[in-house]
Structure formats: C-alpha cells, structure tokens
User: Fold these one by one.
Assistant:
Number 1:
Amino acid sequence: MPTIVTEQYPKGLGHTVAELDVSNLNTFGGGVYEKTLFSMLCPEVKSRLDDLGEKYTDFVLCGIEAHVCVQQTTLDLLDAGKSVHLCVDAISSGSPTDRATGLRRSERAGAYLTTTESIMMELIREKDHPSFKVISNALKETKLSLEDSLEPL
C-alpha cells in the first residue's frame, strides 16, 4: 500500500520525526513531499496519485492540524470522489477545540472516523495473516490506559 507523507514548509517547521521512518516509502510507491499548501494535494502529490492510477479509491489520513491540513486534504479528496478514513487517534491540533471541530466538519462532509487499530485490523482481515502478531504487539505497546483513551470528540 503506497504511503505518501507531506511536510508543511519543512525549512521552517522541520521534517517528519525520526520515529516515523519514511526513508523507504518510494520502494512501495509512496514518497515524502514538501508543500506550502495546507492540503496535501500539492502538484507533486497529485502527479504521484495520477501515476498510481484510479485503483486507489480509499485514503487513510493521519497528521497534525485536524482543522487545517487534515481537513483541507479531506475535503479535496472527497471532492475528487475518494473515500476518506480519518484515524482520530493519529490526528492532532494545537487545541482540543480545533481538533474536535476539524474532525466534526470532515465527518459531516463525508469522511469516516476510525482508529489506527481498526484500520490495521481491517487491512489484514484475520488473525492468521502473516503480519498479525507484529501488528498486535505494536498495538499493545502503544495502548493508552482506559482513562487516557476516553477523550471526547
């Protein structure tokens, strides 16, 4: 599955954190793209998506600034007839109000709110998948306590 990462003005805001190893994305049809547009659909990403063809109809989004970059990307993809799935546990904003408002607006526009665990399990479909154990262990390592996980949208 191609993964496309965009970096909003990395000269001023910095590059993707090292914990998210983006060094091999080109190997799988994706890549890292610098942008100054708030939407990730900058000309270079649009060109890459055109190269990938029409077979990709669903997009899973994670990122920062739910009310700006994530929201504008969501609206652009929905306008292009794509299905958009927002991993709410992997999307943030500078304030809880901005995050909640961005997610709510995106959902009302037609995006699906989901979680990273839900997406990963949907992709592998069953416990017999060769990646299940690795994914399951990663999920256990990052699982929040029940108290921390009960945040309102």
Number 2:
Amino acid sequence: QKADERKRELQERKEQARAERQLKLQGLNLYVRNLDETVTEDMLREAFASFGTITSVRISRDAE
C-alpha cells in the first residue's frame, strides 16, 4: 500500500505543477519570425490552439 500512496502523491504533485505552470504562462506573448507571406492569422490560431487558449493573433509584416 505504500507504493500506491507514493504513486498517488507523485501524480498529485505532477498535476499541481502542471496547473501552476499554466497559470504562470497565461497571458504571455509568442513571437514567430520568418513567416511565409501566405500565412494568415487564422492559420496561426489553428496551429497553436492545441497548446491552450489563444486570446489574440496579430501578424506584423516588414514594410519592404
């Protein structure tokens, strides 16, 4: 039974650390460079949606 208790405790710690990490990273910005000109904001939103909630997407293009 000791092993089961230890396993449960480790699982709880892992879940707690994951939740804390998500709260810490919430609201941060992600910058991606060298995007192809055909990439749209919708494409980026779709590509990163599996990593969490996307609050906004904006593409800044160089004025060349």
